Amino acid sequence: MMHQLATRTLGVVPVMFFVALFVFCILHFAPGDPAVILAGDMASPEQVERIREALGLNKTLLSQFIDWLARVLTGDFGTSIFSKVPVTELIAQRLPATLSLMLLTLVFSVTVAIPIGVLAATNHNSLADRIVTAFTTLSFSIPVFVLGYGLVYIFSTSLGLLPVQGYAPLSAGIGKHLSHLLLPALSLSSVYIAMVARISRTTMLEALSQDYIRTARAKGVGRRSILYVHALKNTSLPVVTVIGLGIGMLISGAVVTESVFAIPGVGRLTIDAVARRDVPVIQGIVLMFSAMYIALNFLIDVLYVILDPRVRY
Q1: Tens digits of per-residue pLDDT, 77-90?
Q2: Residue 290 CB partners (closer than 8 Å, separation 6+)
Q3: Does residue 8 fall inside a structural domain?
Q4: Of these four, 17, 132, 169, 309, which has the most CB atoms within 10 Å of its CB?
């Protein structure tokens, strides 16, 4: 087991290097010059050149990449071109809102998706199965921002039950904190619930047709024990995989959701940075989310070993 973990840990290093290289190159090859944007339309060529020299943009791409990578390895992602605030500080200010939204979405999605997937599988071709299938298909079809605006119209504008937009930190009270996050989490969780519910239903149907399930039934094992001890445990690996892969979808969906509900998170920061072509901020955010996603995939590999002893061999 330790050998597997060490191998996977070493495999993270080249992945992060190529992610860093890709992020650096894609932003520098994109149209537009940060120095020109920062100087303004009325700036003289001399002013633009001074800004380029101050930002280090007059060096070769290789020199820029080496200097930038050396700073990143020490935890220095640079300074925002527009706000003049360190990138790590900007991200740290916005990260709690994004993490709260993603955590609430994840907990709600898994809590709902697995039970309805099991319900559909154990009642195959019944009305419940058809309702779950229709729900998952509809959830895949509705864009997150459309569902978000619909929920705002129903629960905020019409019924007045929840805030329309904004964010309240946890220090303002758990009730107020959750009330501002409930509608964004519901919007963001729709596709995630559909994805996890579908794979739960499929894997449970496959497990219930196996010989060991028929043997358990022949021995008189109770229905609840068959479902949650034997079948669900053996379907955990595909479900855990989909839950982990869906984190990437939550990260991208948070950008849209935070814009719809005016949440001051990293998603909003990303949109503002892209609009201004604030290169250091974009690079820092992408690297942070990439590292988060790689770490979660590493955690999934560890869970494989814990959940299924066969993986150890």
Answers
A1: 878 877 788 888 88
A2: 16, 19, 23
A3: no
A4: 132
